[in-house]
Amino acid sequence: MMPGPYGIAKLDGEVKQPGGLAYPASRCKLAATFTNQFDNFDFVGGTARYPIQIIDTNNTWRKITGFADGFEGRSIYVQCLDANTAGFVLLHENTSSRAENRIKIADGASFTLYPGKPGVWLIYDDTIKRWRCPAQQGVINSTGATLDVVNTTNPTSLYNFTIQEYALGTNKAARVTVLCDYLNNSGAARTFTLRVLFGGAIWYEDVSISLGVSTARRAIGIIVWVGAANSVSSQVLHGSLTISSPTAPTTGYGDIGANVFSSQFGGNPTQDGTLFNSIDVTILHSVANASLSMRRRFAMIELM
């Protein structure tokens, strides 16, 4: 092990690829006492030029604005240590690093490396003197755990996830999908209130249609988009809510034969996109009853 200005670089071994090819891998641990933003980041020691670098964030969210020692064709695969509870963010063209060390991300937004998720290849382009990084897309978090909101009128989050600073850039979007079922066997028609929060502020709220009594569960789908409106400080929120008929289908739950409700909704957030911002889909039942239940069956968030 060799100490360096950013912590410890240590040989972890090799990472096996399909076909038996092995790449040497190194782990770089960021000391808790160091700043949370790293400029002109330089891997140190005998493993500094290993193509795979596993970064141990010491369980603190970090930012990296650039990497030193770039040369034509050099490739680095950077990944967050699986055991961490916090990852790190690669920032696009951030001027805190020298020009030749900066990262050029394809869509101009940031790229977040989460614990337990795959890393990303950075390739140095000597023509533009930048590390090239692809755009971040796809599912970044999901849950299949059932959450039953029942016998309460307290506002309850069906799904909440915090996207990292600069994640939306000026032209990207996050899409949240929440799949639920709903039971009203409480003896009278009921409603629920849907709230959508971004950055801790409520940007959409409304009461649902009246939902009659049924012994069968309805299927409910909620989709929410939050996109940057050509700015890091202005967004557009748009969503859809679909509620099936209360009668039982031939198989499964949610009859689509009649009385299906579907609507669109929206809002105009003005949150600072250079900061961490949570997206929160919340419901409130109109009354507390043991036979009034909204169950989340699955939820996920994607960057588009």
In the CATH scheme, what's the topology name of the largest domain? Jelly Rolls
Number of strands: 23
- How confident is the prediction overall: mean pLDDT? 89
In DSSP terms (H or I, runs of 4 or more residues), the helix count works out at 0
Uncertain regions spanning at least 5 consecutive residues: 1-22
Description:
With 304 residues, the protein is an all-beta fold. It has two domains: 135 residues, no CATH class; 165 residues, Jelly Rolls (Sandwich). 0% of the residues lie in helices and 49% in strands. It is built from no helices and 23 strands. Strands 1-2-3-5-7-11-12-9 form an eight-stranded mixed sheet, with no helix packed on it. Strands 13, 14, 16, 19, 20, 21 and 23 form a seven-stranded antiparallel sheet that branches. A hairpin with a 4-residue loop joins strand 11 and strand 12. It is elongated and about 70 Å long. The protein starts with a strand and ends with a strand. The N terminus is likely disordered.
